[in-house]
Design a protein that fits this description.
alpha/beta, seven-stranded mixed sheet, globular, RibonucZ/Hydroxyglut_hydro, about 350 residues, MBL fold metallo-hydrolase, 12 helices, five-stranded mixed sheet, WH-like_DNA-bd_sf, Metallo-beta-lactamase, Chain A
Length: about 350
């Protein structure tokens, strides 16, 4: 556990749900943990005791929050959870915090499996549907050209990114054809408790965290993680975005929540110390921005130039694409703040330089 983690409190200690089983983190709220085939090797998913009024009377059941990637192993893990944890009750609805594959990948399967509606923000729903349409919806030549513009132009790397054409559809082959829209401030009555949606930006198009005041719980999704900083990136779909400013503004929306709020993150263990973690994330990005500024004061830098400034470890292709997005996000924050200039050189590479 690093020094920053020691400033947080983990009420469940090192306890982790067994495969196919849950840990109850609060009355009617269960924690599911599933494996992922990435460096970030797991995702936390949540079951919330639910009920719905129907013409036939009140129907008791469960709400699933987030889904895991579409994979046979993930479906098998869900079936084990259904057999052991649902208390012979159905799944009534599926809530997805955002459109990244580990969160929405199995939404279509789950909604079909239980005849349950999908709840998600309109922005993330539409982007996910677009991502399912074809092999180059995310990645491929558009991504390779964008990263080359920002200095990742070695022929072998360009070829690797161009070849990465089926990433999203392989993990999210389909999304439900209908959904129910979540907006900032939307309140969901899940069983005995109301959960309020809190929108967030910079990590996903329109991420929705869920806060239950009566239980003192925040399902933070990827906007509030205890051990790692959330990926905040600029990509080719929105090439001039100020993603980092959006993210930092978004996490400040959690400041009015109670100091003893139990945060249920998508990765890592449930923790308390929300306000401490918000300040840690601000400090982390202030430090990274300062390092990037120093580099750009020494010489004009592309995003590829600042990769070793921001990331001290070797990166594989999957990690490099995320790292490039992060590097551009930090450079753009300084550029939008008027600290750096942005210019495209005769070699077709964008570089950022400190204002004289």
């Amino acid at each position: 556990m690093n020094d920053l983690e020691l400033q947080l409190h983990y009420p469940l200690g090192d306890a982790l749900p067994e495969q196919g089983r849950c840990i109850e983190v609060a009355p009617g709220v269960k924690w599911v943990r599933m494996a992922l085939p990435f460096a970030l090797n797991h995702i936390n998913l949540w079951l919330i005791r639910d009920a719905m009024d129907t013409p036939q009377g009140r129907l008791e059941g469960w709400c699933i929050v987030d889904c895991c990637i579409h994979a046979d192993t993930s479906m098998a893990q869900w079936e084990a959870v259904f057999a052991s944890e649902l208390e012979d009750l159905p799944v009534l609805r599926v809530v997805v915090t955002h459109m990244h594959p580990d969160h929405i990948g199995l939404a279509d399967w789950l909604c079909t499996r239980w005849s349950a509606p999908l709840y998600i923000s309109a922005t993330d729903y539409q982007v996910a549907r677009w991502g399912c349409l074809g092999p180059t919806a995310f990645g491929g030549e558009p991504a390779a050209n964008f990263f080359a513009l920002h200095g990742l132009n070695a022929p072998e790397m360009v070829a690797q990114v161009k070849a990465r054409i089926n990433y999203f559809p392989s993990l999210v082959p389909a999304v439900p054809t209908q959904y129910r829209r979540l907006l900032d401030g939307t309140e969901l009555q899940l069983g005995e408790h109301r959960w309020r949606c809190i929108s967030g930006y910079g990590h996903a198009p329109e991420h929705m965290a869920l806060y239950c005041e009566s239980l003192g719980i925040l399902i933070g999704g990827d906007m509030m993680l205890p051990r790692i900083s959330t990926n905040v990136s600029v990509y080719e779909q929105e090439p001039l975005s100020n993603a980092l400013a959006l993210f930092l503004d978004s996490i400040d929306k959690f400041k009015p929540l109670a100091t003893d709020t139990l945060v249920l993150p998508s990765h890592g263990n449930p923790f308390t110390g929300l306000h401490t973690r918000i300040e840690q994330l601000h400090a982390h990005h202030r430090d990274r921005l300062a390092e990037v500024l120093v580099a750009c004061q020494t010489a004009p830098c592309s995003a590829a130039d600042v990769l070793p400034v921001l990331f001290k470890r070797p990166l594989d292709l999957h990690q490099t694409t995320f790292a490039m997005g992060e590097a551009i996000a930090h450079l753009h924050k300084l550029w939008f703040d008027g600290v750096l200039t942005r210019n495209e050189g005769a070699d077709g590479v964008v570089r950022f330089a400190a204002e004289p």
